[in-house]
Design brief:
The protein is mainly beta. The protein has one domain: Jelly Rolls. It is built from no helices and 11 strands. It has strands at about 5-10, 10-15, 20-25, 30, 35, 40-45, 50-55, 60-65, 70-75, 80, 90-95. The strands form 3 sheets. Strands 2-3-11-6-9 form a 5-stranded antiparallel β-sheet, with no helix packed on it. A 4-stranded antiparallel β-sheet has the order 5-10-7-8, with no helix packed on it. It has a two-stranded parallel ribbon with strand order 1-4. A hairpin with a 3-residue loop joins strand 2 and strand 3.
Length: about 100
């Protein structure tokens, strides 16, 4: 589970219409999204290269991400994402409605 010492990552909605929501996420060192469930399928486009930690109810996994190399997840994904590194990490999330 999450530590109370973590701060929240900064999210900026760039587009929100009837088809998609596009959000830029900026993770300062030690920041997190907080636990959440994705109600729709989505695509993540890393703008930075580095590691982010993904906590699920079952496990904690460190993921190596590369700028410009997208990935997708299905609706219903429940997790918390946090930046355990010493540098900022940025990605853009595209939720498909």
């Amino acid at each position: 589970m999450t530590s109370n010492a973590r701060t929240l990552a900064q999210s900026t909605i760039q587009i929100d219409n009837e088809r998609v929501t596009v959000t830029e996420w900026r993770f300062a060192p030690g920041s997190e999204t907080g636990w959440h469930v994705h109600p729709v399928d989505y695509v993540v486009v890393p703008m930075s290269s580095g590691e982010l930690v993904l906590e699920t109810r079952e496990e904690t996994v460190t993921n190596q991400l590369t700028a410009g190399h997208s990935y997708t997840r299905s609706a219903g994904s429940e997790h918390n994402v946090f930046n355990a590194s010493e540098t900022e990490f940025v990605f853009v999330e595209i939720e498909l409605k």
